[in-house]
Specification:
By secondary structure, this protein is an alpha/beta fold. It is built from eight helices and nine strands. The protein has a seven-stranded mixed beta sheet with strand order 1-9-6-2-5-3-4, with helices on both faces. Strands 7-8 form a two-stranded antiparallel ribbon. The chain is globular, with a radius of gyration of 18 Å.
């Protein structure tokens, strides 16, 4: 009986989750909770000078799909002007509404699936010279912590640098889902890192992408590992997909 009630509630929630009004209500609630966590926590972020240098210039900020929560207020407080690539399905649209509250505009789609339209829009944004681009290279459906090459095309076509960003915390809750989404609890210590800009020459051949992709993937995996290690909460897991859950 209890199981059937839980299943019915899940179905109902999935149904109403697609409603725009419900998404906005949840976005506002999540927005308030994130600020509460941020202001009750101690922050230690390295590489902030890089973020400030590129907050209103062409740059491609990349971060793992499961490490986004506490990046939003950091982006907002540093006056970053940019666009985020979000999945066009209801989950992505709900997240996009919350990101809009933090000042980020949205390009709907995926840098891997049906990526031609997204690529054109992203290139146009970067070539304007006024905005950065934010995306998860392992999103929207994994495999976890595997760097898809969408960001490489943006960088090659525009000359904008790829900048890896990550965070960890002393009081984490790693959700039981494919991206091991990290929810930070209030009164934590938040450790973050803004990596060095990585440029890709416009003359780089497509066949050379794999070496560059692997190098970026290693940099981002090590970034997450080193931040987690500060709190002995190592949780880097690769190759997980929604089908695993």
């Amino acid at each position: 009986m209890k199981k059937s009630v839980k299943k019915s509630l899940r179905r109902f929630f999935r149904f109403i989750y697609g409603w725009g009004l419900v998404q906005w209500i949840l976005a506002v609630i999540y927005y308030v909770l994130i600020w509460f966590v941020y202001f009750t926590s101690e922050k230690h972020i390295t590489g902030m000078h890089i973020l400030k240098k590129y907050n209103r210039r062409p740059a491609i900020f990349v971060f793992w799909h499961g490490r986004t929560m506490m990046l939003s207020p950091i982006i907002f407080l540093n006056h970053v002007r940019g666009y985020a690539i979000a999945d066009s399905r209801k989950d992505g649209r709900a997240i996009a509404k919350m990101e809009k509250l933090f000042g980020l505009k949205t390009i709907y789609g995926s840098s891997t699936a049906g990526g031609v339209s997204v690529l054109k829009k992203g290139v146009k944004v970067l070539n304007s010279g006024k905005y950065c681009l934010a995306l998860s290279p392992d999103g929207p459906r994994g495999p976890s912590m595997r760097f898809h090459d969408g960001a490489l095309y943006f960088a090659k076509m525009t000359g904008a640098p790829i900048i890896p960003v990550c965070y960890s915390s002393s009081r984490p809750w790693f959700q039981n889902r494919w991206d091991r989404y990290l929810l930070t609890k209030p009164f934590s210590i938040i450790a973050g890192s803004v990596g060095k800009p990585i440029f890709i020459d416009k003359k780089t051949k497509i066949e050379d992408f794999e070496k560059i992709r692997k190098n970026l993937e290693d940099i981002m995996v090590n970034q997450a590992y080193n931040l987690d290690k500060k709190f002995t909460k190592f949780r880097v897991e690769q190759d997980l997909t929604p089908e695993n859950f």
